[in-house]
């Protein structure tokens, strides 16, 4: 139905302009018949705000999908993270343990709440926050662990929950990239106190912009609901016991999400196929490393991720990305670790943050195009291009040796 013209480049100068470097974009939404039908239904009903039936329906169905007692739809994932912090009462003077290798919204949410993110290294076995490194980062001010299921791989939640219980900490899961992932057979998002999801245009389920929080504790859910809706007393109009935000979603967005959720199994299985095709197509190329998958994890196939060992591969990560862009293949470097970004540099220095695994993985990582409508032929083309560049690199190294 759609073509490759609508690349979802969050940071690009013009996210809708097709360019030669985006003949095969990194991501693209998959919008089907019911997405259109439900959005039309929402429009025709006249209910386009958050007071529409698709909001309740989505919250119920999403909670079921992740095996959580309750869910709240939120206007985007970043606000959902912030809502989680506020819901747990995290504020000034508090510290929250976070991985530095994440989308910047993870650390930002802690700062929005007035608390301080404390950066912890990642585990090479998962690329998620390292449970072994957590204990050393805990201080009397630590209130919570904010674990990110990076690139769809679940963090080691049992180990994290044990440490949290020992020290009386809350556990928040940033599952923005991980809808559909399971840890020891249990879906992510229901493994801590609060689960957070994003439905941005390049995520596994999308409403263009959107998010959700999940929680089992009814009081916590009620508090987050209050804070999501201006802080208004549910039983008394225009009475505000607390200062709240407006983090509500629209009925239109939730209409889209209801349809996306119906197709989630099909979309996830196509993404799993794409991951398998990439693994096969890239097998045996020297210098390419893969995101490990632990035996107790079922990764959610968000963006296919790999690392480049520049010496062995014969070309740096950035050079490879430039060569692929020249062929019309859009890729993405891994997130720049938050502790290296200007808002967090000073704090990270004060913390004495030493994050060697984070630094190494971040500097060598690359995401390849991953979306359900990506044809097999495009994956074959991408793998062939990488293979060709690798052998050329090897030849160049041999010549210079
Ligand atoms: C996408 C993402 C977010 C933010 O979600 P938005 O809906 O874009 O605000 C937060 N954390 C992680 C890890 C993400 O990938």
TrEMBL record:
Family matches, as Pfam families: DegT_DnrJ_EryC1
Keyword check for Transferase: yes
Supply one GO BP term: polysaccharide biosynthetic process
Top-rank taxon of the source lineage equals Bacteria
Cited Gene3D superfamilies: Aspartate Aminotransferase, domain 1, Type I PLP-dependent aspartate aminotransferase-like (Major domain)
Q: Which residues form the active site?
A: 203 (proton acceptor)
Positions of region (Disordered): 1-26
Give the keywords, sorted: Aminotransferase, Pyridoxal phosphate, Transferase
**What does the record give as cofactor?**
pyridoxal 5'-phosphate
Biased composition of type Basic and acidic residues is found at: 1-18
In which pathway is this protein known to take part?
A: Bacterial outer membrane biogenesis; LPS O-antigen biosynthesis
GO molecular function list? GDP-4-dehydro-6-deoxy-D-mannose-4-aminotransferase activity; pyridoxal phosphate binding
Task: Provide the positions where the record notes the PTM N6-(pyridoxal phosphate)lysine.
Answer: 203
Cross-referenced InterPro entries: DegT/StrS_aminotransferase, PyrdxlP-dep_Trfase, PyrdxlP-dep_Trfase_major, PyrdxlP-dep_Trfase_small
Its UniProt entry gives the catalysed reaction(s) as: GDP-alpha-D-perosamine + 2-oxoglutarate = GDP-4-dehydro-alpha-D-rhamnose + L-glutamate
Q: Which protein are we looking at? A: GDP-perosamine synthase
Originating species: Glacieibacterium frigidum
């Amino acid at each position: 139905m759609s073509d490759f013209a609508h690349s979802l480049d969050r940071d690009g100068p013009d996210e809708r302009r097709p360019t030669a470097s985006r003949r095969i974009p990194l991501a693209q939404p998959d919008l089907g018949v019911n997405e259109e039908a439900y959005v039309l239904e929402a429009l025709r009903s006249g209910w386009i705000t958050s007071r529409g039936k698709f909001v309740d329906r989505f919250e119920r169905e999403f909670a079921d999908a992740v095996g959580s007692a309750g869910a709240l739809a939120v206007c985007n994932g970043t606000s959902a993270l912030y809502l989680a912090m506020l819901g747990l009462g995290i504020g000034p003077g508090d510290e929250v343990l976070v991985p530095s290798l994440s989308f910047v919204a993870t650390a930002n949410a802690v700062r929005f709440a007035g608390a301080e993110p404390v950066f912890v290294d990642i585990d090479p076995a998962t690329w998620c926050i390292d449970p072994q490194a957590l204990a050393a980062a805990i201080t009397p001010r630590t209130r919570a662990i904010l674990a990110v299921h990076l690139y769809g791989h679940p963090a080691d939640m049992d180990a994290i929950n044990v440490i949290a219980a020992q020290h009386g900490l809350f556990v928040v899961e940033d599952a923005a990239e991980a809808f559909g992932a399971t840890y020891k057979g249990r879906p992510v998002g229901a493994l801590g106190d609060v689960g957070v999801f994003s439905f941005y245009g390049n995520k596994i389920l999308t409403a263009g912009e959107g998010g959700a929080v999940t929680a089992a504790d009814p009081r916590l859910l009620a508090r987050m609901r209050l804070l999501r809706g201006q802080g208004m007393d549910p039983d008394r109009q225009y009475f505000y016991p607390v200062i709240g935000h407006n983090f509500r979603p629209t009925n239109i967005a939730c209409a889209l999400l209801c349809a996306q959720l119906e197709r989630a199994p099909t979309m996830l299985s196509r993404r799993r196929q794409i991951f398998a095709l990439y693994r096969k197509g890239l097998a045996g190329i020297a210098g390419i490393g893969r995101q490990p998958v632990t035996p107790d994890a079922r990764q959610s196939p968000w963006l296919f991720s790999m690392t480049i060992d520049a010496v062995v591969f014969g070309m740096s990560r950035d050079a490879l990305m430039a060569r692929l862009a020249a062929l019309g293949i859009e890729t993405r470097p891994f997130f720049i670790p938050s502790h290296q970004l200007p808002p967090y540099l000073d704090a990270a220095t004060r913390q004495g943050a030493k994050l060697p695994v984070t630094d190494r993985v971040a500097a060598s990582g690359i995401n390849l195009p991953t979306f359900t409508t990506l044809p097999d032929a495009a994956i074959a083309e991408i793998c062939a291009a990488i293979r060709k560049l690798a052998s050329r690199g090897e030849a160049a190294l041999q010549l210079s040796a």
